[in-house]
Amino acid sequence: MKIAIDIDSTLHHYWDVLSDAARQRFGIELPYEEQYDWGITRLKEEQLKCVIDATHCEPAILAGRPYPGAVEAVNRWAESGHFVHITSHRSRDCQAATERWLSQIGLRYDELYCSYDKITRCEEIGIDLLIDDSPHNIIAALERGITVATITHPWNQDVVEEEEGVIAAADWPTLARELEAAVAPLRRTRRTGQAA
Ligand SMILES: [Mg+2]
Fold first, then answer.
1. N or C: which terminal CB in the chain sees fewer CB atoms within 10 Å?
2. CATH 3.40.50.1000 residue spans of the chain
3. Residue 119 and residue 113: Cα distance in Å, rounded?
């Protein structure tokens, strides 16, 4: 099957990178536990853009530490023959640094797509499963018949509770187990060790 996987707040804990940049540049705190919706209202639009750009410079990208169990789960699916499309809401200018980070963390994937329109691309290439924390992307993917999973965060609690069929877990080992139980092609057969 074809699996699309977001990077920020999905493969690594991006919030600390973002909140550190907001504090350093503007002296504004962005407490994770208070971020109940997708809008970041403590920053003006141009401040938010500046902060996000800072988090996507090469040193910041390369400093990302993957969530425990994330690389192992994705590599297991890649080894089983699933197509892995890494998709990130960031400029095309970040492509090379992001490729270096993926190589550095040892993640196996088929394609990296840095853009501001993930869901159109997912639809174009026939993605079956999207793993993404953004409530907008979760809803847009569900509307297109794509199975959706996410690491839970304060900003996606509502959509996880309200939308039917979102597979969600607090950490990667649990998410991978739940996906492998719920999405038949991700399940390995005991006999062969191959994807079913
Ligand atoms: Mg994300």
1. C
2. 2-11+68-186
3. 11
